[in-house]
Design goal:
Length: about 350
């Protein structure tokens, strides 16, 4: 089955990078969004500027200041489902190394990258374009390489061997984000009034998927997107971006541009935290815009509970009421996106109880 699907992909596959490198003067019809879904670039409509929370994570290690930082995280999670972190402990050299390795990977000849292509979302290492090239109704201006990253020793041998620096440089970044995730999930648990080690065991045994994204320069960025509006399935996503392009939806359903701050990382709440918090926190809906002038790279480190481990609302946050969400696992999410269009209906909406 996988060989048949790969053969179909080989026959039809044309990546966004290939289109950009060919000098295409316009995007093909399959990338053109309906007018109501277009990003309204270059106008005052459709997106707004606002000040998003910036958290200095070094203060979490100061006993007298930790509670104040946790309160700031609580406010950021309630209002936006997102915040930026500085002084996060990942050295600039590790970040620069990861971006360099990604640049080299996406610059490889397409034949080399096609060795890793797959339409099977369960594959632990997968190269592709759009969201899922073989099933998308509308395509998105993105190339990606996704790979499982924790525990690193279990998966790294499956990662790309070309460029030769990829495993070392991206591996260092993956390990660093795993450590950072543990600190963040403790602080977020505290901010909900839970014990900071509420998810400790599940985090230690959990999964990490690294989605390395390339958004090439696009001849018509006003009629397409790099990624459609969606929320992430996991607990937290730690995002590194090489330039601005991420937008989030606020409570008024306005789109907010997330600024690029050199050296910072973006922390996004995922569906698992929304369920665990019983809806006190919401996973952030976000999308990615593209531009005419340059290529944008991002590393989305998606952290979740173990593949088959179910997450449900924390009893302490439900009280005497009925839970607002059903339970789910990472594997349930993968099964859902294999058979459904996530652009039409978010996975988490299928978990909401009628009483919520």
């Amino acid at each position: 089955m996988e060989e048949t699907m790969k053969s179909l992909l080989d026959d039809s596959f044309e990546s966004a990078m290939t289109l950009t490198n060919s000098g295409a003067p316009q995007v093909p019809d399959r990338y053109v969004l309906p007018p109501s879904q277009r990003p309204a670039l270059g106008s005052s409509l459709g997106t707004i500027e606002t000040t998003l929370p910036i958290i200095d994570l070094s203060l979490l290690h100061e006993p007298l200041l930790r509670s104040s930082v946790v309160r700031d995280i609580n406010m950021a999670c309630k209002e936006f489902g997102l915040f930026q972190v500085i002084n996060h402990g990942i050295p600039p050299s590790v970040i620069e190394g990861a971006l360099d390795a990604a640049t080299q990977f996406f610059d490889l000849p397409v034949e080399e990258k096609m060795l890793l292509v797959s339409a099977d979302v369960h594959q632990p290492v997968r190269y592709g374009t759009s969201l899922n090239h073989s099933t998308d109704r509308v395509h998105y201006w993105r190339d990606f390489i996704k790979h499982y990253s924790y525990p690193l020793s279990k998966w790294i041998d499956m990662w790309p061997s070309n460029p030769p620096c990829y495993k070392e440089k991206v591996g260092k970044y993956a390990e660093a984000t795993h450590v950072l995730h543990k600190q963040l999930i403790e602080a977020i648990s505290e901010s909900l009034g839970l014990e900071k080690n509420y998810l400790q065991e599940q985090t230690e045994e959990g999964s990490q998927v690294m989605a390395v994204n390339c958004y090439p320069a696009c001849p018509e960025p006003e009629i397409t997107l790099g990624m459609p509006p969606h929320s992430d399935f996991g607990s937290l996503t730690i995002l590194l971006q090489s330039s601005q392009g991420l937008q989030i939806m606020d409570s008024s359903k306005d789109w907010i541009r997330v600024p690029y701050i050199e050296g910072s990382l973006i922390v996004q709440l995922g569906d698992q935290v929304e369920v665990m918090s019983n809806g006190i926190y919401k996973s952030v809906i976000h999308r990615v815009t593209v531009n005419k002038d340059y290529k944008r790279l991002s590393f989305a480190s998606l952290h979740s509970l173990p593949l088959h481990k179910k997450i449900s609302p924390a009893p302490e946050l439900v009280g005497n009421n009925a839970p607002a969400y059903g339970e789910f696992s990472f594997n349930d999410f993968l099964d859902y996106i294999s058979n459904n269009d996530c652009v039409q209906q978010r996975f988490i909406d299928t978990l909401k109880k009628s009483n919520s």
